[in-house]
Amino acid sequence: FFFSSRRRHTRCSGVSWARRCVQETDAEYMGENLIKKIEGLDTLQSLHNLNLSDNMIQEISGLEHCTSLQTLQLKRNHIGRNGLQDLKGLLCLNNLSVLDLSLIHI
To answer: How far apart are the C-alpha atoms of 15 and 81, rounded to whole Å?
Structure first.
């Protein structure tokens, strides 16, 4: 898949997509990649903006190491099938100021 970080584009694939693709940046687009689970972000403490829109994510988890995250976009995912329980992963994001859950039925 392709993601954009400032002015560069990179092609990534495989299980450890986040570690290889997202290294020293503060904004990442990982939308439209059929991602089912948020994982592999444990080395991205300085990540500020993350767009995971248009995937197949069912619950918000795996973000506990993203302590600098300020903007999280998760629109058009499969979150909410278990009600508010699917959102519990947001509790660790103390710096989060923008959350996009549009087009999700909770």
So the answer is: 25
